[in-house]
Structure formats: C-alpha cells, structure tokens
Amino acid sequence: MTSQVRGAQLARLLGQWHALPGRRRSPDYAALAGAVRGLLADGRLPLGVRLPAERELAEALKISRTTVTAAYRELRESGHLASRRGAGSWTMLPGTHRVASTGLWTPLDDRDMIDLGVAALAAPPELLPAARAAAEDLPRYLGGAGYHPTGIIELREAVAAAYTARGLPTSPDQIMVTNGTQHALDLVLRLALAPGGTVLVEAPSYPNALAALSARRARITTHGLAVEEPGWDADLLLGSLRQVRPKLAYLIPDFQNPTGHLMPAPLRERVVATAHAVGTDLVVDESFVDLPLDGTVLPPPTAAHDRHSRVITIGGMSKPFWGGLRIGWVRASAPQVQRLAAARVGVDMASPVLDQLVAVHLLAEAPAIVAARRAQLTAQRDALLAALAQRLPEWRVTVPHGGVTLWAELDGPISSALARATEEVGVRLAPGPRFGLDGTLERFLRLPFTLPVADLVEAVDRIAAVRYDLDRGGRPQWREPAVIA
Ligand SMILES: Cc1ncc(COP(=O)(O)O)c(C=O)c1O
Fold it and tell me: HTH gntR-type domain: which residues (predicted)?
C-alpha cells in the first residue's frame, strides 16, 4: 500500500522551505531536512510514503543533488526516513510514536471545568416541547413490538425529504436510523471493511472516527490537510486514492472536524469519480452540513456525484440539534440499507422509538431551530476569534465559515503540554495529536465555539495565562514534537 509523493508535489508542500524562521545560519541540506520534519510533524506529509528519488527532488527544487542526498542522510540519521537500496526511502517518525488508543471524548461532570474537549451545543429550547409532543405520539406505536431496525417510517421519510430538498433525491428505504452518527460509522465499517482493510482519512480528522477505525484494525493512510482554505490538495488526495487504492475512504467534506474546511464542488466530483475508478467506497460524514455560517453556500452533497452506490453518507441530529438524543442515520442504496439492518440486529436491534419521534418533531421545525443555532455559533465564533486575537496573537487561525470548531496553529509544538497545563486551571482541551496518528499535529489545537461567549472568553484568558508560563519553562523546538504515548 505504499504511496509515493512526486518531486513536484513535495516541492509544493515544502513551499518556502529555505526561508523558514531561524535557519539563517544553517546550510541548505539541514533546512531541507528540517522542513520535511516539519511537514511530518504537522501531518501534512503522511508516514510511510515514498519520497521522490534524489535527482527528481533536486530538479523540482532547483537545487543540487548533493544537497538532497545530504538532507536525506540527515533524515535517516534523525529517524525520519528509512531507505533500502534500489527501493527508495520512506517517511517515518523516530521511536514508536503512537497516540493513546482510546480516542474517546467524553464530557466531564466537573461543573467548574470549562470543557473545550467537546464540540457540541447544549439543547435548543424547542427540545422539551418536541419531547412532550413525541410522548403524545407514542400510543400510535405501543400496539407493536417497537423494533424497527431501519427506523420508524416517519423519521426515515423526514430524513429522506431533507436530502431530496438538498438536491439529492432520496427515498425512505435508502435511510437507516442509528443511535448517532458514530454508531452509523461503526455499522458501515462492519459492513464495508474487513479487519485489516486499508482506509484513507484526512489528517487531522475526528478522533472517535479514528478510534472506530482502530477497532476494525484498519490500516490507516492519511491525507494531510492544509490550515489554509481549501485544505485538501486535489492532486495529492486523488494521487493517494490511485496509488493506495484503499478499500474505504472516510471524509468530512462539509465543515471538516476539526479544521472547518468545506470541500469545493469540483473536488467532490473528482473524488467520487476516482474512488469509483479504483474500487474505493467513500464514507462521507455530514455531521456539520446544516451549519454553514456567514451565508456560505453549500456545494451539492458529495453523493450527488455518485452513479454507482460508491458513497455512503452518514449524519445525525447531534450538531444542529442535541447530542443527547442519540439519533443519526445512514443514507445508502436500498440493498445496502437492508444489509446494514441485518448487521445491526446483531448489535442493538433498533433505535428507541420515543427518541425517533422527538427527532421527527425537531426536523419539522428545522429551519427555525437551525437558523437560531447558526446565529448563536456566529456570535460565539466571533467572540472566540476576538479573544484569541487579543490574548494569543501569535496563534494563526483560519476563520471557519461553518461547523463548530476552529483549528489554531500554535507558536510551537506545545499542544499536549498546554492541555496538561490548562487542566490545572480548569480548562479541558483537545490537543492536536488526538486528531491524528503517531504523535503528529503538536503545533495545532482544536477550539470549539459551542459554549457561551463568557465561557469562551474566560477559557482563552486561562489558556493565555498558562501559555506564557509554559514559555518561562523554555519553549521546545518546533521540529521535535512532544509525543503522546
Ligand atoms: C465528524 C463527526 N462525526 C461523528 C460525530 C459523532 O456524532 P454523534 O453524536 O451523532 O454520534 C461527531 C461528533 O463530534 C463528529 O464531529
């Protein structure tokens, strides 16, 4: 499953490598090696990919081959490259870096803690009336056994209608209701991925999805997202699909968690076409699709480009409505839904009828509820951005135009150390490495804007206070990421 990065691609990723800060006195080969280490640490260059041959990279960078040879030698010595004569050189990280396998984010019960580890809103005011109305509806179901492995028809109709309204004609038999989007992912993986199968994911990506993939013992290959829009590099993403030919790719094209990026329509179309050509199934997680901000117009759903049942879409109520409902769904072909339902009865039989009825009532009022959520998120995002600009101006953030999180590029590889320090002052953070593999992404931090403004401002104050304490303790070198064991 070796994937190879070509000279021109690596040159593009390296960008202004010879102008990196602090390298004025270091020779070119050392700067080049340092820049490659930086790409690895940031998850932009995946582990286990073959680097271009020395001559090819020298031509692409317009430097001498000796410089590349020396840089590769230095990377081998620092444990970032493994080479075999005649076969090439592969990227790696020194030591056995592994992120803790429990990728779980669970909210804390500690009420004094400002929890920025969870990116989800409190319930909307419409929830309680919806729950009462659902209880009134319940008698209609009490005469039956209550097991509906694909979900109650009213909810499947409402979900299908929402897809159709987004330009993706969908019938209720293409919908299966699940206990949340995470459950949907797990079921899809059970069906579509044999243990040990190869999966392509974005880096960074949603930690609990990575946990679900680990549970399937998936062999994971990554596509590194840039901080800047659009995030995905079309050439590299499509190249990885063609080279690795993964069994499955898990993507979050709509306000990606954690970066907030929105995949442009042309790339969606090319990803679907390429996936079909190489035999890859696409699992598209639309958790945040209802939450565009700033009047952002959504491209057509990824599945709208699908003619061959290659795309399985998952989504749910948690982000626009409430996570505590535990209602999600899968949109697939009708036969796939039947297979998923058959797999599901071996796990949990069906979703609770009452919660599904609550979801039906909330979806009936979706336009008003979601409009209020967007207004709330916009105000909270802007307050968070303002607090960051004031208290932590050296951090770089790309303003997300949707979703509930922003991905901050820190001023050093301090994310895990910062998260440890902020626990002491009552702020729980999700450090960058939790969104990737192998201890990369230490220079990044996900910050959700789902809490009230006062909490967000207070949290940034506390983070800034310990950030400067960390400074006094001596700032680690950005090229040597602290690793989570
Ligand atoms: C991308 C993504 N997928 C899935 C989930 C899980 O959603 P649910 O609560 O519906 O299981 C989340 C929640 O944060 C998410 O961000």
Answer: 26-94
Whether 151 is in the pocket of ligand 1, judged by its Cβ within 6 Å, is: no
- Domain 3-91 and domain 145-365, same fold? Reply is no
Q: Which atom of ligand 1 is nearest to the CA of 316?
A: 10
Backbone torsions φ then ψ of 316, nearest 5 degrees = 180, -175
Q: Is the CB of 285 under 6 A from ligand 1?
A: yes
Answer yes or no: is the C-beta of 287 below 6 A from any ligand 1 atom: yes
Contact 39 CB / ligand 1 (< 6 Å): no
Class of domain 3-91 (CATH, top level): mainly alpha
Note the pLDDT of residue 358: 98
Write the CA distances from 413 to 26, 408, 468, integer angstroms.
21, 12, 14
- What span, in angstroms and rounded, lies between the C-alpha atoms of 204 and 409? 12
Indicate the pLDDT class of residue 111, thresholds 50, 70 and 90.
low
- Distance (angstroms) between ligand 1 centre and the Cα of 182 equals 6
Domain layout of the chain by residue ranges: 3-91, 145-365
How far is C-alpha 79 from the chain's CA centre?
28
Is CATH 1.10.10.10 the classification given to domain 145-365? no
Could you tell me how many helices (H) and strands (E) the chain has, helices first? 16, 17
* Ligand 1 site, residue 257, Cβ cutoff 6 A: yes
Q: What is the structure's pLDDT at 108? A: 58
Q: How confident is the model at residue 442 (pLDDT cuts 50, 70, 90)?
A: very high
- Structure-block tokens of residue 282: 């696409």
User: Two tokens at 188?
Assistant: 């899809």
Residue 328 CA: nearest ligand 1 atom is 10
Give the span between the Cα atoms of 468 and 464, in whole angstroms: 6
CA–CA separation, 53 vs 67, rounded Å?
A: 13
Q: What's the whole-number mean pLDDT along residues 442-469? A: 95
**124-153 mean pLDDT:** 97
Gap from CA of 423 to ligand 1 centroid (Å): 24
Model confidence pLDDT, tens digit, residues 209-259: 999 999 999 999 999 999 999 999 999 999 999 999 999 999 999 999 999
Q: How far is CA 215 from CA 297, 311, 437, in A?
A: 36, 22, 14
Q: Which residue minimizes the CA distance to atom 2 of ligand 1? A: 287
Ligand 1 center to residue 315 CA distance, Å?
Answer: 8
Tell me the CA–centroid distance for residue 111 and ligand 1, in Å: 23
Average pLDDT over all residues of the chain: 91
- The identity of residue 431, as a single letter, is P
Instruction: Report which DSSP code applies to 218.
Output: -
Q: Is the CB of 318 under 6 A from ligand 1?
A: yes
Structure-block tokens of residue 261: 């990026």
The predicted pLDDT at position 115 comes to 94
C-beta 119 within 6 A of ligand 1: yes
